[in-house]
Design a protein that fits this description.
Elements lengths: L9 E6 L5 E4 L1 H7 L3 H4 L11 H14 L9 H7 L4 E8 L5 E12 L5 E10 L1 H23 L2 E7 L4 E4 L1 H7 L9 H7 L5 H14 L5 E6 L5 E12 L5 E10 L1 H16 L3 E6 L4 E4 L1 H7 L3 H4 L10 H4 L2 H10 L4 E2 L6 E4 L5 E13 L2 E10 L1 H41 L1 H16 L3 H32 L7 E4 H11 L1 H7 L2 E5 L5 E4 L1 H17 L8 E9 L2 E8 L6 H4 L20 H11 L3 E7 L3 E7 L3
Parallel strand pairs: 18-20
Antiparallel strand pairs: 1-2, 1-5, 3-4, 4-5, 6-7, 6-10, 8-9, 9-10, 11-12, 11-16, 13-15, 14-15, 15-16, 17-19, 20-21, 21-23, 22-23
Helix pairs in contact: 14-16, 15-16, 17-19, 19-21
Catalytic activity: ATP + protein L-histidine = ADP + protein N-phospho-L-histidine
Pfam families: HATPase_c, PAS_3, PAS_9
Organism: Maribacter aquimaris
């Protein structure tokens, strides 16, 4: 007995049949704080047990052995039934503090079977309970975390083909947690279109002894299609045989749908889109990027963005990129500077770049929208050339304007003044009373008429100058004039998304004044774009033909149209406008009409409000 009553961390307490302590080892002294002399022969075990727990102990023993008398001694029942009791107790120490203990109570009997009392072995399990409580708390947190993240965990014993799923994984698949599971259980949920890929992935994981992350679809018990992501680890025995695979499974259906939507938006963008991380590595591209630079997407992923930039910019670009990530904001890149990319063939491409930062779980990313502006650059060159030509033309027009000013002066003063003077003299003549007065007035009439004749001769000479256009004729292609006009108006065409179609097959050429024909095309096309409908892009159809020997051309548009009932009588008048457009001056159609008529032709119009207009020109009417 002495050999087992001295362990220091175990309390061993022996009592007689009345419950009085007669053995109290050193372990008991250390755990309870009492000395053996304070307890032996003086105290019962109940002195350091909690009354409520003792009543529970008593009730359990009576229930276990079907005791019907509530006052029967539970210790006596254990002895009579050769039983024992093992449970947790809250032990009250001498200083009043408590600890959680595991207690085993066993009756002692003599060789003849008579009761000698009881022995109680007590072990402090406070730390163990704390650890168990912490484990329970962590398991609860883990379960809650799995529920929030739509994640579960799994184990697959590959030797006996037994699978264990966490409760949340059962929820994802909508499986009864009590169901016996194996690999086929999981595989039966795999979407039919993904089964081959899943089989190959698991076979490869077992062959390579390395788990390959897997993203695929399942069809749950209720018929819902979900996307899940599997992560795992392959466990082998000492001989390298795979014995178990463990891992996690996450329902990423919403993330996958968001990714598909994002990819859809990315692919629908009209520009090349390149997503870059803080290290300058390309993370994602769209089809427009492949089209612009000539690289398949997989060749660009993970490459530094400088891969798409001419080498002469590479030294400075990382510094610019670092500055942008330090103060990220949506803006155009390199404003005021010419930017170039370089494609797979090594050809440089003029580009515009707009940068937009956005935060993700993986950190800050930047979306670069890249636009090829080759056409705009060509248009700019043409515009510069056109500007030079316009400056030359402006100088010519300046001379013409001076001539027009002189002409206006003649018509407003030198012509009106003599006519007004004649009217006044006529009134005086009617009221003259003597022949001398009439003779004097006649002399004045003669002087004024001479001035008027000089003025009219001057006007005739001016009109002869205007008619010189009919003498400068040459054979001209309508296609040539249209192409030149489109080049001049290329900026306006791009800005308004105008579609211009033509058919000159029935009458491709004309003998005409080149300057006048170019002016006619320019005025009618620019007007069609200027007075476009806000509800649709401009569409202009130009056709030529010959009817009854008369060369004709039609300019048809789908613009605002003109109310001919209200404005038809003044449509070709000088300074007449019919729409509230800031650039409307009422000069273009007037000039066009004068030029056509000076060449012996005629212009007319058919129009419907909000439908469009058709201008018809008869060149030799």
């Amino acid at each position: 007995m002495e050999s087992i009553t001295n362990p220091e961390i175990i309390a061993i307490i022996a009592t007689d049949n009345d419950g009085v302590i007669y053995r109290f080892n050193e372990g008991a002294e250390n755990l309870l704080g009492y000395s053996a002399t304070e307890m032996i022969g003086l105290k019962k075990v109940t002195s350091f047990l909690m009354e409520e727990e003792f009543e529970n102990f008593k009730s359990d023993i009576l229930s276990r052995y079907k005791g019907k008398k509530p006052n029967v001694d539970p210790y006596r029942l254990l002895t009579l039934n050769d039983g024992y009791d093992s449970r947790e107790w809250t032990i009250v120490k001498k200083d009043g503090t408590t600890f959680i203990a595991h207690s085993t109570l066993t009756p002692l009997k003599s060789e003849s079977g008579e009761s000698m009392g009881y022995i109680r072995i007590i072990r402090d399990i406070t730390n163990q309970k704390t650890i168990e409580t912490e484990l329970l708390r962590k398991n609860h947190v883990l379960h809650y975390a799995e529920k929030i993240t739509m994640m579960g965990n799994w184990q697959w014993d590959t030797v006996i083909n037994k699978v264990q799923w966490s409760s949340n994984l059962c929820n994802i698949f909508e499986v009864d947690p009590n169901e016996n599971l194996n690999f086929e259980t999981y595989f039966n949920f795999v979407h039919p279109e993904d089964k081959d890929a899943v089989s190959m992935s698991f076979e490869k994981s077992i062959t390579d002894r390395k788990f390959y992350d897997l993203l695929h679809r399942i069809i749950s018990t209720s018929g819902k299609t979900k996307t899940i992501q599997l992560l795992g680890e392959v466990i082998t025995d000492n001989e390298g045989n795979v014995i178990e695979i463990i891992g996690t499974c996450q329902d990423v259906t919403e993330q996958r749908m968001a990714e598909i939507k994002f990819r859809g938006l990315l692919e629908s963008a009209p520009d090349a889109m390149v997503i870059v991380n803080e290290e300058g590595k390309i993370q994602l591209t769209n089809k427009q990027t492949e089209k612009l630079f000539g690289y398949p997407s997989e060749e660009l992923l993970g490459k530094p963005v400088e891969f798409l930039i001419p080498s002469r910019y590479n030294a400075k670009h990382p510094t610019h990129r670092e500055k942008f990530f330090n103060t990220p904001k949506a803006r155009k890149m390199g404003e005021g500077k010419e930017l170039y990319g370089i494609n797979k063939q090594g050809k440089e491409i003029p580009i515009q770049i707009s940068l937009s930062p956005f935060k993700t779980e993986e950190g800050l990313l930047v979306s670069a929208a890249i636009r090829d502006i080759t056409i705009q650059k060509k248009a700019e060159k043409k515009l510069l050339k056109t500007k030079e030509n316009l400056e030359i033309l402006a100088n010519r027009l300046k001379v013409k304007n001076t001539q027009l000013a002189d002409f206006a002066h003649i018509t407003s003063h030198n012509l009106r003044a003599p006519v007004s003077n004649l009217n006044s003299l006529l009134e005086f003549y009617k009221t003259a009373e003597t022949e001398d007065e009439k003779t004097l007035l006649f002399e004045k009439f003669e002087i004024v008429i001479n001035h008027l004749t000089e003025t009219l001769n001057t006007l005739i000479e001016a009109l002869k100058t205007k008619n010189e256009g009919s003498e400068k004729l040459e054979t001209i292609s309508f296609d040539e004039i249209l192409n030149k006009t489109k080049e001049i108006l290329s900026g306006q065409i791009l800005k308004t998304n105008t579609i211009i179609t033509s058919d000159f097959s029935k009458n491709p050429i004309i003998n005409y004044n080149r300057v006048y024909l170019e002016s006619i095309f320019l005025n009618l096309l620019s007007n069609a774009m200027k007075y476009k409908s806000e509800d649709r892009n401009p569409e202009i159809l130009i056709q030529s033909g010959i009817e009854d020997g008369v060369q004709k051309i039609w300019f048809k548009d789908n613009g605002l149209g003109i109310n001919l009932e209200r404005h038809g009588h003044k449509i070709f008048g000088l300074n007449k406008v019919f729409h509230r457009h800031p650039d409307a001056k009422g000069v273009g159609l007037f000039i066009t009409k004068v030029q056509i008529e000076s060449m012996g032709g005629k212009i007319s119009v058919e129009s419907e409000v909000n439908v469009g207009s058709t201008f018809k020109i008869n060149f030799n009417a």
